[in-house]
């Protein structure tokens, strides 16, 4: 079983607008390989041989948590179609500044959603800020998984210090037991070599989503090759990366004996499936 632990899709009504907005933000640096719709996502999964994908929405405003949860429920119930029910693991999201975040996280957990997505650039907060630790402590208490953007972002060319390795480490030291997945191989983009290794002793997992076809990849390759097998999850960041290319890149770097764990076993364990 192949599980993509980092992917995105949008409701049909906003997919075109959302994708166009993100393309503008990257100033032409990124071009999607999909159109952002759920149907297109499922089609790409089937063509690439991906069995399950974690879909990662982002609440850019506190009120959006409810809309996101409603869609997650629709996917899980089959309202969005049998393919989506069978192939998508929808995460939810809360905004860290939501005054009712704790109650909303409880509702997310009651609905059977397995995790929540954060993106500190889009949500304008730092993982190291102590004022947000109660939100993450609540997530840990509920046993939810955090999927979080890590490192630099091409849409914020001059911004760091919000979700780099040191900020992630600060959070994990303050909230023991938090099940945290640092996207993009732990956030090595725009950070010095070996910076991500500060996370090795903190139980952090990383996903393999990386713009491997477009950037110098020495540090990404080092992390993918050297980190413990049980700490790495396959991820594409679809629709920004073509899934077969992402699969081929991971296979070209990592020993075949590790493929079962990286492409599915670790994700099954983390998601409890």
List the helices and strands and how they pair.
Layout: E1 3-7, H1 12-25, H2 38-48, E2 52-55, H3 64-77, H4 82-87, E3 88-90, H5 101-110, E4 115-118, H6 120-123, H7 133-142, E5 145-148, H8 165-174, E6 179-182, H9 183-187, E7 205-207, H10 218-226, E8 232-233, H11 243-253, H12 259-271
Parallel strand pairs: 1-2, 2-3, 4-5, 5-6, 6-7, 7-8
Helix pairs in contact: 5-7
Summarize this, please?
By secondary structure, the protein is α/β, with parallel strands linked by helices. It has a single domain (3-271), classed as TIM Barrel.
Task: Provide structural commentary.
This protein is 43% helix and 11% strand. With 273 residues, it is of the alpha/beta class. The mean pLDDT is 93. It is built from 12 helices and 8 strands. The strands form 2 sheets. Strands 4-5-6-7-8 form a 5-stranded parallel beta sheet. The protein has a 3-stranded parallel beta sheet with strand order 1-2-3. The termini are close together. It has one domain: TIM Barrel. Helix 5 packs parallel to helix 7 (133-142).
């Amino acid at each position: 079983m192949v599980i993509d632990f980092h992917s995105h899709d949008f409701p049909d009504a906003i997919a075109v607008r959302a994708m166009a907005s993100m393309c503008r933000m990257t100033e032409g640096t990124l071009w999607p390989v999909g159109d952002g719709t759920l149907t297109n996502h499922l089609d790409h999964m089937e063509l690439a041989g991906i069995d399950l994908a974690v879909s990662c929405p982002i609440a850019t405003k506190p009120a959006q948590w409810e809309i996101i949860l409603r869609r997650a429920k629709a996917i899980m119930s089959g309202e969005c179609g049998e393919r989506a029910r069978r192939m998508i693991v929808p995460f939810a999201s809360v905004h860290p500044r939501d005054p009712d975040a704790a109650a909303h996280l409880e509702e997310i957990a009651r609905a059977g959603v397995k995790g929540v997505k954060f993106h500190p650039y889009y949500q304008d907060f730092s993982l190291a800020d102590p004022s947000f630790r109660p939100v993450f402590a609540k997530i840990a208490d509920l046993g939810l998984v955090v999927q979080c953007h890590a490192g630099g972002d091409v849409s914020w060319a001059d911004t760091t210090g919000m979700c780099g390795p040191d900020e992630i480490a600060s959070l994990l030291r303050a909230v023991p037991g938090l099940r945290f997945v640092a996207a993009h191989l732990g956030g090595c983009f725009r950070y010095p070599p070996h910076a991500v290794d500060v996370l090795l002793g903190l139980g952090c997992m990383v996903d393999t989503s990386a713009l491997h076809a477009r950037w110098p990849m020495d540090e990404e390759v080092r992390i993918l090759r050297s980190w413990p097998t049980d700490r790495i999850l396959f991820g594409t960041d679809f629709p920004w990366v073509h899934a077969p290319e992402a699969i081929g890149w991971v296979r070209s770097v990592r020993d075949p004996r590790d493929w079962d764990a990286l492409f599915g076993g670790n994700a099954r364990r983390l998601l409890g499936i």
